[in-house]
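Section 5: illustrative case.
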């Protein structure tokens, strides 16, 4: 092979190597733009409804197969102008990947923010269309609300919706599930996310208070799936300090993706 041919082949070989690493759930190299001080993303974890239909010990018996001091970042209810953009900027500076559970109505209202989250490497998932408590609705109406959210988010991201959402991850608003809906989503191949701990950022508090609260919960739980809301100003304000604290305390960030992607 000539020197020129080797140079042309190198990028393709690198892409294949990175894809193979992600498929095994192993550590992935950070982009050159990431500083040594950045938290980074330690590994990619593929998740499949066939083996992991429901996760998050605040709500279910099982959670993700995380090692001690591994953290999964999740954000609900966006996207909205201002706070979502600030969250994305912070994550970008820290080379940190997260999962965003979008409301369909917000994705349609702010599709550029939804697409930005996707283009910057985050997992973009689903949280209904308008945030009702689904366990208080008739089954058919609740499933229609879920499907309307799937369709809106995928339309904002990809311009169309097919029978299944591109990212088959879902979180119930208020964690208000029912057994019938859980069973239905499992049959459809949708992973339902709860959380292992949350920031309680639906309650007004100062950024330093929220930081102390969520760090104490992370330490007590030794990591896990953390729930934030990218619609909350206090969360957007404290996020950089939270990620720096994770780094200084030896925590590692895990990015969850659908198994089909890998």
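Designed sequence:
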């Amino acid at each position: 092979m000539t020197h020129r041919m080797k140079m042309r082949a190198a990028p393709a070989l690198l892409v294949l190597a990175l894809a193979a690493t992600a498929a095994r759930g192993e550590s992935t190299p950070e982009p050159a733009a990431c500083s040594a001080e950045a938290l980074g993303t330690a590994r990619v974890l593929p998740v499949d409804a066939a083996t992991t239909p429901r996760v998050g010990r605040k709500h279910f018996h099982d959670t993700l197969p995380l090692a001690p001091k591994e953290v999964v970042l999740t954000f609900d209810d966006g996207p909205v102008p201002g706070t979502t953009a600030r969250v994305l900027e912070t994550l970008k500076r820290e080379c940190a990947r997260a999962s965003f559970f979008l409301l369909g109505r917000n994705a349609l209202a702010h599709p550029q923010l939804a697409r930005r989250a996707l283009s910057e490497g985050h997992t973009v998932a689903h949280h209904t269309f308008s945030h009702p408590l689904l366990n208080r609705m008739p089954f058919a109406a609740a499933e229609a609300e879920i499907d309307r959210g799937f369709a809106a988010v995928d339309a904002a991201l990809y311009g169309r919706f097919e029978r299944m959402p591109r990212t088959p991850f879902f979180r119930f608003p208020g964690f208000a599930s029912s057994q019938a809906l859980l069973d239905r989503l499992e049959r459809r191949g949708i992973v339902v996310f709860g959380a292992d701990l949350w920031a309680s950022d639906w309650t007004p508090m100062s950024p330093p208070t929220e930081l102390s609260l969520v760090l104490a919960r992370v330490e007590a739980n030794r990591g896990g799936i953390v729930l934030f809301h990218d619609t909350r100003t206090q969360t957007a304000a404290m996020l950089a300090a939270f990620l720096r604290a994770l780094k200084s305390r030896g925590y590692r960030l895990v990015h969850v993706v659908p198994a089909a992607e890998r």
